[in-house]
Amino acid sequence: MTSDEKINRLRQWMRDNGIDAYLVPHADRFQSEYLVPQDERLAWLTGFTGSAGMAAILSDKAFLFTDGRYTLQAAAETDAHVIEVIESPAGNPADVFGGHLSEGGVIGFDPMLFTVAQMTLWRREAQLRHWQLRPLETNPIDLLWTDKPVAPTVPAKAHELAYAGMSTADKTARILEKRNPKAATILISDPTLVCWLLNMRGGDVAHVPLVQGAALLDETGHITLFTNPDKIPADLRLVWGNHVGVENLSRLTETIEKINKPLQIDPVQCSYAIKVFCDDRDIPLVEAQDPALLLRACKNAVEIKGAISAHEKDAMAFDAFMAWFNTRDFEAENITELDVIEKLRHCRTGNTDCVDDSFSTIAGFGPNGAIVHYRADEKTNRRLQPNSLLLLDSGGQYFEGTTDVTRVLPVGTPTPIMKKHYTAVLQGLIALSCTRFPVGTTGAQLEAIARQPVWALGLDYAHGTGHGVGSYLSVHEGPQGFSPRGTAPLQPGMILSIEPGVYLTGQYGIRLENLVAVVDDAREDDIKHMLAFKTLTKIPFESKLICREDLTEAEKEFLQKFQQ
Predict the structure, then answer these.
(1) Can you spell out the DSSP letters for 503-550?
(2) Residue 97 in contact with residue 61, Cβ under 8 Å?
(3) Phi-psi region of 493 (alpha: psi -120 to 50; beta: other; left: phi over 0)
(4) Which domains does the chain have, with CATH numbers?
(5) At residue 351, does pLDDT exceed 80?
(6) What pTM was computed for the model?
(7) Reduced to 3 states, what is the DSSP secondary structure of residue 101?
């Protein structure tokens, strides 16, 4: 079926069930960024394969909302005659489709796929505009999608203490110290936090060593893991002992009802369906940030040491890739983006310590590099030919840590303007990397430092300057980040990316990315407690693209130390 046919079938279901608008987010019940194939409802309906977005289907209109990373990709992947792509947050969904929904209009949604915090905003909009929000027990996409793939059962494994640096018992004790005293039990609904707490890794999601599930932590320190029990082998249960019990995910709400005590949830992460269930049964909810979030973000000494080791191994793999790349004759050889991806994967996983890529490699040559989160496939695969640029964003999963690095490689002779743009992006990365800042500073406060050299050229980029990174977990983790949403104060042990860029639609893209760790930086004359960044990435920049005459002495000194 085409997207048009799928949407028309959905509209027929909506008419039959009294629904005037239906919301289809890129989400699963865990609010994961990366979904298993059977949860890719948005992609099935619209064709859009990005990791952030929401469709709003009305009787006469279909909208797809996504952020600046994906607007070009969304336009390329969807049928413009059927779906209108809107960049958000500039385009508030309620404002955009509000003119097509009359007073009293009914908006249907799957409460499993929206968070408590998201529905708080939607309820406010609905009240202002006199709409009705209707949580549905049945997701119509699941009724229409008759050939859904079946999820394999991949056994979970222990993440050894030699890599984790802290036992589950110690993590549990620290979480309980920080729990809201009004709550008897904490619901940990983010699978990455569950895996971090239980020192467990799995294979449910591509490139993220994740076991999908949730957990209840009671005031005695006992943890109940809710997942597919068949994934949890006997040796892992033995490691946990009586400290952890395992139940089927389907028993989560039943267990919450039996406990019937105040439950702490994180409204930013918890499914709205849990709130509906608890409200219907008068189970008190305490809304607070999951205390595991900051504990996970601040890596311990073992994890920091592991991150350094992982980046050293990653640099060796990238060096092997560059030895191959630099000896290609791109005029004579038919080398494509997919060839580059496969070669880099081979260079990484040829090192047995690299378990997997940390995400699907972005290899965008020429115009494809201007698509921020481009993914090469057989339809878009472009041959590398002189004279343009290859944007290469990739990473590896090592037991010691997770890497993420972006480099831009010239094919043939770069133009002066390419070099000018590359140098400005590099200067932005250096400026933020060298910044000292007082305790309490947020990533949102610092982000503009990396943008300034790009702004000076009259350019900008439509994505955040950096994100948090996990430790042999998700390559994207919060709450730390360099973006307007990065409001968490930076603390020692946090690992973040710094990745400014420049994108010229139809020409090329430039993004440079290093990972850094937040460290203490006390100096004798300081009045404030100061922090700084330690660069973890060890992969060189491309000297052919640097306008050295535009660099300051401090920038040259940074590069000299970095390239050693």
Answers:
(1) EETTTEEEE-BEEEEEEE---TT-SS-EEEEEE---PPP-GGG--GGG
(2) yes
(3) left
(4) 3-144 (3.40.350.10), 157-296 (3.40.350.10), 298-563 (3.90.230.10)
(5) no
(6) 0.94
(7) coil
